[in-house]
Amino acid sequence: MRRSIIDIRDLSPSEIMELIGTSEDIIANPAKYAHKCEGKKLGTLFFEPSTRTRMSFEAAMYELGGHVITMAGAGSSSAAKGESVADTAKTVSCYTDIIAMRHPKEGAAFVAAKNASVPVINAGDGGHSHPTQTLADLLTIYREKGHFDNLTVGLCGDLKFGRTVHSLIEAMSRYTGVKFVLISPEELKVPGYVKKEVLQEKGIPYEQTTDLETVLPTLDILYMTRIQKERFFNEEDYLRLKDSYVLTPEKLVNAKEDLVIMHPLPRVNEISVKVDEDKRACYFKQVLNGKYMRMALILKLLKEAGTI
Ligand code: NCD
User: Fold this and answer.
1) Is the shortest distance between the CB of 122 and ligand 1 below 6 Å?
2) Residue 131's closest CA among 121, 140, 139, 141?
3) How many angstroms separate the alpha carbon of residue 177 from the centre of ligand 1?
4) Distance from Cα 164 to the centre of ligand 1, integer Å
5) Active site (annotated) includes residue 52
6) What is the pLDDT of residues 174-221, one digit of tens each?
7) pLDDT attached to residue 73
8) Which one of 22, 44, 53, 132 is the catalytic residue?
9) 3-state SS of the chain?
10) Is 130 considered catalytic here?
11) Which ligand 1 atom lies nearest to the CA of residue 102?
12) How confident is the model at residue 72 (pLDDT cuts 50, 70, 90)?
């Protein structure tokens, strides 16, 4: 059956464990997977800038032996002539077996999935969600910690517009004993719908603060994020808030020895490059883990659709 992934909750916790298992097997036995998608095509439709997400989807499909067709960019596709997402999805379904799409509008991936005849994977829809970044994040947490339960997860930066934050909260809130520490400027707090529908609904403990340094020693995971410039309505607010948090080696002195420092990247100024040498810095591991999880997800969705 054709299935699309629009939200991280489209995958159950047991399916996430299955994807982690496949990723670990791919890491251990890459040759076993080198021809699994031979002759199959991934379409990448990116209406917003991307380095890691698009390239990791493309690398994933090549490493599975498949092909990639990519739309050169929103400005040079028929979107610039006014074509709808629905028509674009119908069209691209004629050329491909699976689609990964990023779009600046919340809900665009949902519309694409409704209209496509192949599986659609949401590669980020506006300030809403980013499920495959969360898969990369979950594999990273699992490989570093060995489990998801009883972790204190600090999310820091732009929690309002940061779609990776919303998806990670949704995913981690399904495990036992997880606590969230939400660190942001007043103006960039987690949206009410995430607090209400995810945290309060399930009675998950969370604390909101503007002060990173005070809470840092209590954290098992620190997830830093970029202030999302492109989603601001005025430049002035962005300039005022952009350097709200900068993680430095000095600030990490009282942090736990086994803290896992994460960032979906790109970083602008939120983590000093000096932190890269710290053994707790895991953000480049996250990049590589993203490729393996996307390989596992493409395989799963193509298998379920009966394409492979
Ligand atoms: C993130 C995104 O696009 O939401 N990047 C990514 O996919 N790794 C984070 C960001 O742009 O800040």
Assistant:
1) no
2) 121
3) 27
4) 7
5) yes
6) 999 999 999 999 999 999 999 999 999 999 999 999 999 999 999 999
7) 75
8) 53
9) CCCCECCHHHCCHHHHHHHHHHHHHHHHCHHHHCCCCCCCEEEEEECCCCCHHHHHHHHHHHHCCCEEEECCCHHHCHHHHCCCHHHHHHHHHCCCCEEEEEECCCCHHHHHHHHCCCCEEEEEECCCECHHHHHHHHHHHHHHHCCCCCCEEEEECCCCCCHHHHHHHHHHCCCCCCEEEEECCHHHCCCHHHHHHHHHCCCCCEEEECCHHHHHHHCCEEEECCCCHHHCCCHHHHHHHCCCCCECCHHHCCCCCCCEEECCCCCCCCECHHHHHCCCECHHHHHHHHHHHHHHHHHHHHHHCCCC
10) yes
11) 3
12) confident
Nearest CA to ligand 1 atom 8: 264
Number of neighbours of residue 273 by Cβ within 10 angstroms: 7
Active site residue 229: no
CA of 51 to the centre of ligand 1 (A): 9
**Residue 203 φ/ψ region, left for φ over 0, alpha for ψ in the -120 to 50 degree band, beta for the rest:** left
Determine which one of 9, 52, 67, 242 is catalytic.
Answer: 52
Q: Measure the CA–CA gap between 83 and 35, rounded to whole angstroms.
A: 35
Contact 53 CB / ligand 1 (< 6 Å) = yes
| pLDDT-based confidence at residue 62 (cuts at 50, 70, 90) | very high
Cβ of 264 closer than 6 Å to ligand 1, yes or no, is yes
Instruction: Retrieve residue 136's tokens.
Output: 């990369």
Tens of pLDDT, residues 76-96? 788 888 899 999 999 999 999
Mention every residue, 6+ apart, whose C-beta is less than 8 A from residue 14.
Answer: none
Q: How far is the CA of 123 from the centre of ligand 1 (A)?
A: 9
Q: What is the 306 CA–ligand 1 centroid distance (Å)?
A: 31
pLDDT, averaged across the chain: 97
Q: Which of 36, 41, 54, 102 is catalytic?
A: 102
